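Incident review: delayed structure delivery

Summary: a single-chain prediction request sat in the queue longer than the usual turnaround. Root cause was a stuck worker, restarted by the on-call engineer. No data loss occurred. The affected request and its eventual output are reproduced below so the record is complete for anyone auditing the incident later.

Affected input:
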Amino acid sequence: MSVTPTPEGAARPGGGTGRRIIYVDELNAFSAAWLARHRGTVSGIYYIDVSGWMKRVLPVFRRVFLRGTPILPLDFYMGDIRTERGENLFIKISFGDIGKFHGRMVRDHLDHDPLCRMFARRFGAAEISLYVKIKTMRALRRYNSYLYAAAWHARSLPANPPADPGFLLSHFYSDLLAGHAMSLGLRVTAYTNFSRLFSRWIRILKRLLWPVLSLRGLTQKNAGPRPAAPILAAGFNGKYITFDPSVRSDFFWLIPSSLPRSRVMICFHRHDYPVTAEMVDTLRSAGMNFVAFSESARVDPRVPLFSPGRRAAWDLAVWNARLAVRVLTAMFSGAVSSFYLDLFADFVRHYAWWGDFFRRYGVSVYININDASDDSVPFHLALKAAGGVSVSYQFSAHSLNHSPETLILPICRDVFFSFGPYYRPLLDSVHTAIGHGVYTGYITDQAFELVKERSRGYRERLQRAGANFIVAFFDENSSDDRMRMVSNRRMTGVYRRFLDAVLSDPTLGLILKPGYPGTLFKRLPDIRPLVDRARSTGRCLLLDEGVVVTRVLPTEAAQAADLAVGFLYSGTAAMESVLSGTPTVYFDFENLFDQPEYQWPARISLSEAPSAGVSDAGRIVFNTWEELWTAIQSFRREARSRPDLRRTIPFLSQKDPFQDGRAAERMGEYLSSLLMCLEREEPAAGAVAWANRKFSEKWGADKIVSRAVR
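Output delivered after worker restart:
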């Protein structure tokens, strides 16, 4: 973590006066007022954020109230906060601690709040608890990060470490944060941010009054007639609108399916990737339906725009009336929480919106990736009320690759497609609201055979330029956002190492396969000259097709290489590489020593080099470039004697019990069975039971887990 230096000539915070350092979540009018009142006890101030108004008046405030007291920004990056042995704390901070917070939240808050109890009785305790967790997760992660950053900074001050440092914050769950902060050596003091409170009440009033004020304008806009038969709708996830199974497709499960395409609707909601004329032409040629949820989600006027109508306004008015009655009733028996009122006013807004959409278009099944969006739970409950079935699928190993105590999975669906039974203990150990789990295998494995010719072409091209050993490198993403784990600076360093190796070794070939090619040179501008030089040798390929995410699947790069390198934290590309048959190693400069790969037996080692910090473990996991490069050179000399990782890696058959290239086919079959049964006007539960039975008969009863994943 970078530590902000004390300006030369200023007093150093914390030293020997009986006063203490105060860390502040945001320097604003209200926190400044607290600091001014307690200035006699403050030796120094470090703030994380500052309001626009406070930034303008800070010099005057300092001179008038805190003359001689250092007031400095706290500069930190999550990826730099580590244990004494160098292990990155990002997973603990972002997942493990949050799970504990949520456990105490249910016990101390949700079980007693009148609004929480009201909605739990109506929709189910598990679903409402999950909704509150999703809505609060980001803020709790942020504040937990602030606490760790402050504790780290206090310990790293070069002299006179402060006694009893304090943290001044404003958050609804300040009591939960205060208890946790004590374990970090911080004493939390809560203050009231009246500006935030005022904004919350304005937001609540707008949501409560919106149905009345907007009723005249709530009419159906450019929406087609309701289809005669039930529709399967799918959210557009930013992949690609294509029927080519060898590249990323947003509806890969539809390509091998017998499901009539005229019964499928693609729903566009992303303003960063709006539906284009080319996408519309592809969908229309296939006879598929499509709709946009906002003007910013479309650039082609041929795309119908869904806008909530009078039904949504009426449903919302009814729910808001119930909220108002419950609040008035609760006022006579105890305090009414504006925090929860804000959460549930937003809940009913999403619930009414989705309910109107499902009924207007006759949506009986909706499928999308597992996500943590604010409307995930009301979406599921609205579809359930409309008699439909919500479906989600695992799309990466990243979100399901950590131990249960460090995992939060905000999944609320009737059916969840998972790669395999390896992930069931993780799902069983955390709070989810899943009705049925279905194991399908690795979802894009249909492409493994189809990309072989392209992969062979890449390999031959590099060999013609002199390469006799080829490495594929998977960069899944990086960011300069201080709340992320992998920084652009660190990723730039990794790219430099690979590119320098190619430029210095005329027999080495390199395939770069970034996960987000559209932002690669924006994130890492310093590598462009090196990439250009490496490509000019003919021994470096950059697979940069893609708008948001890459169009090229990892298997295409992996099958052209002798060895693949992926990151341990985001291990999806590496997993696909192994399933494709390519020897694969993990680069772990974050030192995530608790990951199971560190416990794999030595017989699968690709190098005799030990891993730093962990004795006799992680023989295919390397923590430094020097270790990794030594392993690559060792493998290069003895590649023929190395084992087939598909046969030796533990649990691979549990992660994908099929490994047959038919995962998308299985998903399509299941969805087709669901829709067929719902077309006969069967209830949703009966349709799921029938789809489960058909799937079990063909693929095995052990591939369905009902009501066991919670």
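Verification: The longest helix spans residues 125-156.
Action items: add queue-age alerting; document worker restart procedure.
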